[in-house]
Design goal:
Helix content: 25-40%
Number of helices: 10
Number of domains: 2
CATH class of the largest domain: Alpha Beta
Largest sheet: 9 strands, mixed
Radius of gyration: 25 Å
Order of helices and strands: HEEEHEHEHEEEHEHEHHEHH
Shape: globular
CATH architecture of the largest domain: 3-Layer(aba) Sandwich
CATH topology of the largest domain: D-Maltodextrin-Binding Protein, domain 2
Oligomer: single chain
Distance between the termini: 51 Å
Strand content: 15-25%
CATH superfamily of the largest domain: Periplasmic binding protein-like II
């Protein structure tokens, strides 16, 4: 960048100082632009939802979907910074552009207004969990009309369940909004505060296994609620360049799945290759 040079024989010291400051500001601005272009760190939001995403004992974000997203973004030359917070906070702050992406997300009409979606990275199936000592089974929701049910607040459960809640089919439905909602619900189930917990089958099965000494008296009713649903990475429309970013991500994700990298991650965490 060129700056003005004075041709007078006796330039004003004050004027020279002003010009110097203008040039310095211009160079600083250019430097900021360059730094911004070179900075490929992406803040990525999620919540505690093992085995898909959770914190290890050192506080590092791990899990099947965490590793998929990290590896795909690193292949693209980005440095993902995974930040785990309560889900309501993650989704709200992402919508205004505080995150470059959030995961693992089920597609809903409301979210369509705010996010671009990746192709499916995984899939999710919801089942009821109960105490082993209780003889509870069901074919229709009417079989569960006397049950007190706990769910995780903010989670997009199958539409058929939401419709049953609107019809007030169940005795009660309690939403839990803390950072470890599914674990809190399982503990409430063990304590007899609720009768059933509706939960993603891999998530609550994983928690029961991890906390076996505490939660071994609980298990799943195998009947799936509704249909399995795809899990996505959601890229906020408020994040600059998000539409291009999701296209890049999808192209690399397809290669990642095709070369068997995703299957290796699923195997390491002991879950089936459920994603499409």
């Amino acid at each position: 960048m060129r700056c003005l040079t004075l041709t007078t024989n006796r330039p004003s010291v004050r004027l020279l100082g002003a010009i110097f400051r203008l040039c310095l500001a211009a160079f600083s601005t250019v430097g900021a632009w360059v730094a911004q272009a070179q900075d490929k760190t992406l803040p990525i939001g999620a919540t505690q939802w093992p085995p898909f995403e959770f914190s290890d004992p050192r506080g590092k974000a791990v899990g099947t979907d965490t590793e998929i997203i990290e590896q795909v973004l690193k292949r693209l030359g980005y440095t993902p910074q995974m930040i785990l917070q309560p889900w309501n906070r993650v989704e709200t702050t992402a919508a205004r552009g505080d995150f470059a992406a959030i995961y693992s997300v089920i597609r809903t009409p409301e979210r369509e207004q705010l996010f671009f979606y990746s192709d499916a990275i995984n899939s999710s199936a919801s089942v009821f969990f109960k105490r082993k000592a209780d003889s509870v089974s069901w074919k229709s929701f009417d079989d569960l009309k006397n049950q007190r049910i706990a769910i995780a607040g903010g989670y997009a459960y199958p539409i058929v369940f939401g419709n049953a809640v609107k019809r007030k089919t169940f005795a009660s439905v309690k939403e839990t909004f803390d950072a470890n909602a599914d674990l809190s619900n399982l503990r409430a189930l063990k304590a007899g505060l609720v009768d059933l917990v509706l939960c993603e089958v891999n998530v609550c099965s994983y928690l029961i296994k991890q906390y076996r000494n505490e939660l071994d008296a609980l298990h799943a009713i195998p009947t799936v609620v509704g249909d399995a649903m795809d899990l996505h990475v959601a890229f906020p429309k408020a994040w600059p360049g998000s539409e291009q970013l999701v296209r890049q991500f999808n192209a690399e994700l397809a290669k990642f799945i095709a070369d068997g990298s995703r299957a290796k991650i699923f195997k390491a965490y002991g879950i089936g290759t459920t994603g499409k």
